[in-house]
From TrEMBL:
Organism domain of life: Eukaryota
Domain Rab-GAP TBC: 311-521
Organism: Peromyscus maniculatus bairdii
This protein's GO CC annotations: autophagosome; cytosol; recycling endosome
A Pfam family matched in the record: RabGAP-TBC
UniProt subunit comment: Interacts with OPTN; this interaction mediates TBC1D17 transient association with Rab8.
Keyword Glycoprotein tagged: no
InterPro entries (UniProt xref): Rab-GAP-TBC_dom, Rab-GAP_TBC_sf, SGSM1/2_RBD
Name listed for the protein in its UniProt record: TBC1 domain family member 17
Record carries keyword Oxidoreductase: no
Molecular function as annotated in GO: GTPase activator activity
Gene3D superfamilies: putative rabgap domain of human tbc1 domain family member 14 like domains (1.10.8.270), Ypt/Rab-GAP domain of gyp1p, domain 3 (1.10.472.80)
Length: 645
């Protein structure tokens, strides 16, 4: 770069943008990139670029105005309403390209649409930095500019947020907000600028300029006399770090927050995996044996265990699903059930009337309801159209899907409708074949999975973290392989968990899988073990093929309709039994499996006592074979990554 000074002082790979596949021409919703802190002439820039152009985008500069000097262009039309997810449900967050990113330098033809996501912002234009809450999933940073806009969230799949913030602290003063400890307000290393901005922190009642002067001259006496609140924000932060010196830990970045990573799990010794046999489905005759004279079900735990072990015969589902989904009480009599159904029928049609009575003029003024209606109509028109119950342009099943989903918007208006819900309703309506019954059964299902569809997606990230923890305990070599291929975050499992494998199995197998999961046995997260079972079945193919991240995603997607639900359920239960047989199973794994309550500080882990489930037999001795793939070790240790952020 002639005529200019350019020096990279920090660089970190594995920093992703999580984009919505439908809102960007690139179908891949995970855009890998490199984050850099660059000293350029007299300015310091924070620069992110996709990996394929990481060395070619240093002149794409963030600016409050576009390249013509005017205000940011608004010519590109953006949808005003889109509360859903895109068809492949690979999204983690829904960020859009910022309109105030300048165009690439002249002559630089973007090789792919991802180039539009690259940005570079002067540190002087930053107003605040928000850091994600610590957890088992990836950490991220959101940067807000002085103009009030925010850059796309930076997701650090390999750690690095703490290291980046330490580097930024050489050039900026990062102060934790009094209202939100995860929000860091940005100030320059300049006492006059700091003085003029102190009132934004609301730290002091007296004149802020006097406070700053005293604090800079004598931080200790000032702090310990009447300004003790400052210690939470500025202890050691007012002095810039000398170049080349090791940066001390920022007080606002405690070292006890690993990211991404896991609590120490030492010496997890897993025994041999038992062999599990599935039972035949529960028949209508067997169900009748559990019905008392007044229609009240008897021996309910035994009945649930039978459903878990073998599922239900098709003719029994219409009645049994109402119990599994909480529409009818397991303890209620036949008369109580009739009264309950009458009450719920009236309640349903009152809610349905709310949206049915909205005129076209009213709907035009209600963008939210109009948006829900449009999204539902679009999704219903393509939901399970190969199923005879929904095929054909004028199929009444489609009308019922539409009406039930719109009524659910009235029932749960805060959540409304999100793409994917039609996939959850379709099998229920197919089985019960009654509008009111299907609605209340769907509500029961949504009680289990509504967190999957919340905008924050905290539930989905937590489940992916729990899945990764289980997989690390079960098969560390597989996790190491996925990590080496930039797939360790298990984002390719997102759709599995979002809609409970609806797109992975043939329609009849989905019915069997869901009724087993609805029993709540053997614990609250059997669906995570189902995901582990699928990965366990595919481990040799993945590890021997030399797949990269794109090939791994392609292979997982190609498993659709090729999996046997009985094989997967058998292996999932075997994994559960293998874990629960471990006498020293870590407490956080016990919590995932429903074997323990959240642990009190200093309390020992309770003993593991698995529930009696499907019949098992002692596993046969393993046949001799050549170890071509590293097998799960019976003694492993999970430690935080060296680069913990």
């Amino acid at each position: 770069m002639e005529g200019s000074s350019y020096r990279v002082v920090f660089e970190k790979g594995g920093v992703y943008l999580h984009t919505s596949a439908g809102k960007h021409p690139d179908p891949d919703s995970l855009i890998a990139g490199v984050i850099r802190v660059v000293e350029k002439d007299s300015d310091v820039l924070l620069h992110w670029a996709p990996v394929e152009e990481a060395g070619d985008s240093t002149q794409i500069l963030f600016s409050k105005k576009d390249s013509s000097g005017g205000e940011p262009s608004t010519s590109e039309e953006e949808p005003t309403f889109d509360p859903g997810y895109e068809p492949d449900w690979a999204v983690i967050s829904t960020v859009r390209p910022r309109p105030h990113l300048a165009e690439p330098r002249r002559g630089a033809e973007p090789s792919c649409p991802r180039s539009s996501w690259a940005f570079s912002v002067s540190l002087g234009e930053l107003k605040s930095i928000r850091r994600s809450k610590p957890g088992l999933s990836w950490a991220y940073l959101v940067l807000v500019t002085q103009a009030g806009g925010s850059l796309p969230a930076l997701h650090f799949h390999r750690g690095g947020t703490r290291a980046l913030l330490r580097v930024l602290s050489r050039y900026l003063l990062l102060a934790s907000s009094p209202q939100d400890p995860r929000l860091y307000l940005v100030f320059p290393h300049d006492s006059s600028a700091l003085s003029s901005s102190f009132h934004h922190l609301q730290l002091f009642d007296e004149d802020s300029s006097n406070v700053v002067s005293r604090f800079l001259q004598d931080p200790y006496s000032t702090t310990f006399s009447s300004f003790s609140r400052v210690t939470n924000f500025f202890r050691g932060a007012l002095q810039p770090h000398p170049e080349g010196a090791s940066s001390p830990d920022l007080p606002l970045l405690p070292d006890d927050e690993p990211e991404p990573g896991f609590e120490v799990i030492s010496c997890v010794e897993l025994g041999r995996r038992p062999t599990v046999e599935r039972a035949p489905p529960v028949t209508e005759e067997e169900w009748a044996h559990h019905v008392g004279p007044d229609g009240r079900l008897q021996n309910i735990p035994e009945l649930k265990n039978r459903i878990f072990s073998g599922g239900l015969s098709p003719g029994l589902r219409r009645e049994a699903w109402k119990f599994l989904l909480g529409y009818l009480s397991w303890e209620g009599s036949a008369e109580e059930h009739k009264a309950h159904v009458r009450k719920k029928t009236d309640e349903y049609f009152r809610m349905k009337l709310q949206w049915k009575s909205v005129s076209a003029e009213q709907e035009r003024r209600n963008s939210l309801l109009h948006g829900y209606r449009s999204l539902i109509e679009r999704d219903v028109s393509r939901t399970d159209r190969t199923n005879k119950f929904y095929e054909g342009p004028e199929n009444p099943g489609l009308g019922l899907l539409n009406d039930i989903l719109l009524t659910y918007c009235m029932y749960h208006f805060d959540l409304g409708y999100v793409q994917g819900m039609s996939d959850l309703l379709s099998p229920i309506l197919f089985v019960v074949q009654n509008e009111v019954d299907a609605f209340w059964c769907f509500c029961g299902f949504m009680e289990l999975v509504h967190g999957n569809f919340e905008e924050s997606q905290e539930t989905m990230k937590r489940q992916l973290g729990q899945l990764l923890l289980l997989l690390r305990v079960l098969d560390q070599p597989l996790c190491d392989f996925l990590d080496s291929q930039d797939s360790g975050s298990l984002c390719f499992c997102f759709r599995w968990l979002l809609i409970w494998f609806k797109r992975e199995f043939p329609f009849p197998d989905v019915l069997r899988l869901w009724e087993v999961l609805w029993t709540g046995l053997p614990g609250p997260n059997l669906h995570l073990l189902v995901a582990c079972a699928i990965l366990d079945m595919e481990r040799d193919t993945l590890m021997l093929s030399g797949f990269g991240s794109n090939e791994i995603l392609k292979h997982i997607n190609e498993l659709t309709m090729k999996l046997s639900v009985e094989d997967v359920l058998t292996r999932a239960e075997a994994l559960y039994r293998q874990l629960t047989a471990c006498p020293e199973l870590p407490h956080n794994v016990q919590e995932i499996l429903g074997l323990a309550q959240p642990k009190e500080p200093g309390s020992p882990s309770p003993p593991v006592s698995p529930l009696p489930l499907s019949p098992t037999r002692a596993p046969p001795p393993p046949p001799p074979h050549e170890d071509v793939v590293p097998q799960p070790d019976s003694s492993l240790e999970i430690l935080p990554e060296d680069d913990d952020g």
